[in-house]
Batch of 4 targets.
Target 1
Amino acid sequence: AQSVTQPDIHITVSEGASLELRCNYSYGATPYLFWYVQSPGQGLQLLLKYFSGDTLVQGIKGFEAEFKRSQSSFNLRKPSVHWSDAAEYFCAVGGNSGYSTLTFGKGTMLLVSP
Amino acid sequence: GAVVSQHPSRVICKSGTSVKIECRSLDFQATTMFWYRQFPKQSLMLMATSNEGSKATYEQGVEKDKFLINHASLTLSTLTVTSAHPEDSSFYICSAGRGQYDGYTFGSGTRLTVV
């Protein structure tokens, strides 16, 4: 069975500091990996996705993530956090089809301090 | 492009009544749509997979007679919560699969409150 672990329930980062959100996955085949962001009371917005190829993936809003197969990880990073980045972040894993189901991690709440 | 519209965004209903939530893909055809439920401060739990023109596939533990899903066209799927009770109060989110390698687009969610 596929699973996603986000070990940090919440993280506080100072504005302008760098950010790394951790994600580990378990999947029996080649995974498709996603990072989504959710603001309170809103749906999910895709930040970036990894299907194949270059293991360093660039996304929107200055985010990037690196796929490390040996560590079963797909950590999300941003070099300089803005106050507007405060939100809930979800890592997800799915199969190699846009019709397969996604399994989400429990999410990491990012708080940005002034 | 790739917009999924979900309505209503918020709904309050009385216990025992039914509520319908719509999920529309506005600029693409979605043969598969997914319905999730999210409890406060928790992750998304998949409820069912909706395939156009066929019966939905429900996840284990989800009551298919309570959560009726219809996917009558390539752009519309509906979730009807029947005989709603306060414990059905939650945030419901739909997503549409755009095909291989294209990923998924999520609706903005529906906050259901049953009083």
Note: Chain B is about 0% helix and 55% strand.
Target 2
Amino acid sequence: NAGVMQNPRHLVRRRGQEARLRCSPMKGHSHVYWYRQLPEEGLKFMVYLQKENIIDESGMPKERFSAEFPKEGPSILRIQQVVRGDSAAYFCASSPPVKSLRGEQYFGPGTRLTVT
Amino acid sequence: ILNVEQSPQSLHVQEGDSTNFTCSFPSSNFYALHWYRWETAKSPEALFVMTLNGDEKKKGRISATLNTKEGYSYLYIKGSQPEDSATYLCAVLKTSYDKVIFGPGTSLSVIP
């Protein structure tokens, strides 16, 4: 059973470009979380999704950021018109239906975004 | 808004010392608590999932306790080793359908 996969692992974008980060959850997992780790900081919640549904996006910046988890395929975190302050590690985590394992999360290896 | 706190923020101990740190959360509407270990340049890995008041979990030299009535959990490391150096994250679910809320973490450095 493959773990949570994220790609790319490293992404370099120039200011103003778009960044697309992908997350494939573990098999059987129906929930995906996206977190951001800024330099010298901890994990900051961004968005919580179920397939075809955003459950909580209270941690997402209001502009330029969007996330989706389609019926088929990976979850995508999209950052439009990137700025230097978007440089961070972005982690995805997946979990099975909460009641089965009390919401334990399995993290992917992260995508390190660098904006030049 | 659920607020999860952890203390201390950072800790330096000598190899062989035992140590413990705390996760605090509002005691009302508790569903589950998780402990994660996060090594530098890696991704967090789950250590324990705890749900019941009085729960005690153990994995090797690491153990955890849970008190849901007063809203805290302790993580203990017996005989710390340099490989225990990591950030230890606590996360709480208020209900089965809410998002997981992470605390800021306790950064542990074990000095050989």
Note: The longest helix of chain A spans residues 98-101.
Target 3
Amino acid sequence: TQLLEQSPQFLSIQEGENLTVYCNSSSVFSSLQWYRQEPGEGPVLLVTVVTGGEVKKLKRLTFQFGDARKDSSLHITAAQPGDTGLYLCAAAGGTSYGKLTFGQGTILTVHP
Amino acid sequence: GAGVSQTPSNKVTEKGKYVELRCDPISGHTALYWYRQSLGQGPEFLIYFQGTGAADDSGLPNDRFFAVRPEGSVSTLKIQRTERGDSAVYLCASSPSGSDYGYTFGSGTRLTVV
């Protein structure tokens, strides 16, 4: 069974600060996805990374996939209150094609 | 439809009752997934359909839980003899095929068993 460790679990910062969220496992993934979820809504896909060492940027968000495809990070530059939400990493691969394993999530609060 | 639709959005039921949760995926998406999410946690896999068949039901917690997708589109998650521990948000997602490139999730059904 793949297990994803996400850290930190909670993050409370001021507007304008930078932050990084980490997602780690002892298993190799075929791909890794990052989602953002707001209260009362389902998770919304931000990005999928597939290649070891891959870096993707989405405005102020930078996503990295580790060279060995066992870890990933999400970096937010100059956080804004609108970035507040639950950030989830999810891994595909292993023996259960079609199934995603999610981390426990990082609850981010950005104060104005 | 334009997105994944789940009904009802909220369901309160008494312990021991039977409930059905419905998911209407994006038109043309062959893969459909059910997940369960507790407050402040990541979703936990329940079952995955490819077309009409359950390709992986390893996440169903016990035989009180059952899901169907008879025509390869709408799916229903059925829970018998509900228990308070079944209270959670039940999320449905769909994708064109497989999961490697991301799902589209519905807004979920919040189930409360009292």
Note: Chain B has a mean pLDDT of 93.
Target 4
Amino acid sequence: EIVLTQSPGTLSLSPGERATLSCRASQGVSSSFLAWHQQKPGQAPRLLIYGASSRATGIPDRFSGSGSGTDFTLTISRLEPEDFAVYYCQQYGSSPITFGQGTRLEIK
Amino acid sequence: QVQLQESGPGLVKPSETLSLTCTVSGGSISSYYLSWIRQPPGKGLEWIAYIYSGSTNYNPSLKSRVTISVGTSTNQFSLNLSSVTAADTAVYYCALTAAHRGGFDPWGQGTLVTVSS
């Protein structure tokens, strides 16, 4: 099983700042089959990024994903108030599908 | 656009079977991976299983207790989880994955299932 470790656990930033979230895999994620999801309180998660770097439909271009192998990054270029949420990475290159434990992005 | 809705009992007794159905509207499920994912209160996400073109894949941690199937209605799929305990209390989500894309999209709104006597 691929274990995904996200860092930091909590990130405190202000609107307008840049956010960098990390996801490290215990072994290589094949074909960059890595996704990022955003979850707000009381809501279902929403897909932001798939294939490590492709934005899902309707996702603003301030969200970008990068990385390969075992190290992946989600970057939010300029934080908007609605971006404060929990972010999960997810790998779907090998079974079982696994998620990271999440990074909470909070307003400073 | 495609939307998903979970349905089923919100309360299940210990040792019984949890049964949920996901109804998909706005599109056909035939070209998607159909998944169930759960989230215990205040915790992270755990993938349970998927079914695709008649083939199933289960999380080994739950495999002995889980069955996923496509329903008799063409746009429904279901989850059965047997011998539940309090540890199975969670919000249960259904979600789709397009084979050419990956990731779960869209998700249902989720349904809270509490295991308690």
Note: Chain A touches chain B through 26 residues (CB under 8 Å).
